[in-house]
C-alpha cells in the first residue's frame, strides 16, 4: 500500500478514535480542565498525531496506548468519587486567595502566583478594586470565583417585594426552515395549526423562516425571516398596529 494512502487512513482512524474517546470521557470546556485532564488530553493528542504519520509501527499499538490513557482517566474519575482525599492529591483543591477582604499571601505562594496575577484575575471577573472583594477562591481549573462585599452585590428581584413569573424555556416551532415537531408536541399543536397561524402555504414559505417561537401565555408568535426585507416589513406592521 502506498505511504500516502497509509497516512490518510491512519489520520482518519486516529481522529475517529479520539472522537469516540472524547465522547466517552464526557463534555468539558477547556476552562474546566484540571491539570490531570490537561495532561491526559495532550498525551492522547500526541499519540494520535504520531499514529497518523508513522507508517512503520502497527497502528493498533497506538490504539492500545490511547485506550490505556482513556482507562486511566476513567479510573481516576471513579477513584476520585470514592476517595475524596485522593482526588485532592490528584486534582488539587481550591485555594482561598482573599479571605474576609484580606489577601492571603501564603495561599498565593502555594498557587505560584504573585499579587499582579491576582489583580489580573480579579479584573477578568470585572473587579478593578480589590477592596470590593470579600472572598476570592482559585478553583482547581484555574478560574477565580469571587464573592463581593455586601455593598457591591448586584441587585436582584428578590431584594424587592415583587412577584415574577417562573422562568421557562422558549418553545421553538421552526428552526432554520424546519418544523420542530417536539416543540409542537409541547404545546399540543400540529402542523396545520402552525401553517394556518403563520400563513405558510408551501415549503418555500417555511424555508424563508430562520426561527419561529411561540409564547403560550401571551398567545404570540415571534418570527425571524432569512430575508431582511420581510423582517423589516413585519416590524413596520407591528409598529403601525401599536399606533
Annotation keywords:
flat, alpha+beta, 4-stranded antiparallel sheet, 10 helices, 243 residues
Short synopsis of the structure:
The chain has 243 residues and is of the alpha+beta class. It contains 10 helices and 8 strands.
In whole angstroms, the N-to-C terminal distance is 75 Å
Q: What do the pLDDT scores average to?
A: 77
Q: Provide the structure class.
A: alpha+beta
Estimate what percentage of residues fall within beta strands: 15-25%
Basic shape: flat
Low-confidence stretches are 235-243
Physical arrangement of strands within the biggest beta sheet = 2-1-3-4
Helix content: 40-55%
Determine the number of helices (DSSP H or I, runs of at least 4 residues): 10
Name the helix and strand elements from N-terminus to C-terminus, one letter apiece. HHHHEEHHEEEEHHHEEH
Largest sheet: 4 strands, antiparallel
What's the β-strand tally? 8
Radius of gyration: 27 Å
Topology summary:
Blueprint: H1 3-25, H2 35-53, H3 59-82, H4 84-91, E1 95-99, E2 102-103, H5 105-110, H6 115-124, E3 133-138, E4 144-148, E5 172-175, E6 178-179, H7 181-186, H8 191-197, H9 203-207, E7 209-215, E8 220-225, H10 228-242
Antiparallel strand pairs: 1-2, 1-3, 3-4, 5-6, 5-7, 7-8
Helix pairs in contact: 1-2, 1-3, 2-3, 3-4
Overview of the structural elements:
With 243 residues, the chain is an alpha+beta fold. The protein contains 10 helices and 8 strands. A hairpin with a 5-residue loop joins strand 3 and strand 4 (144-148). The radius of gyration is 27 Å and the shape is flat.
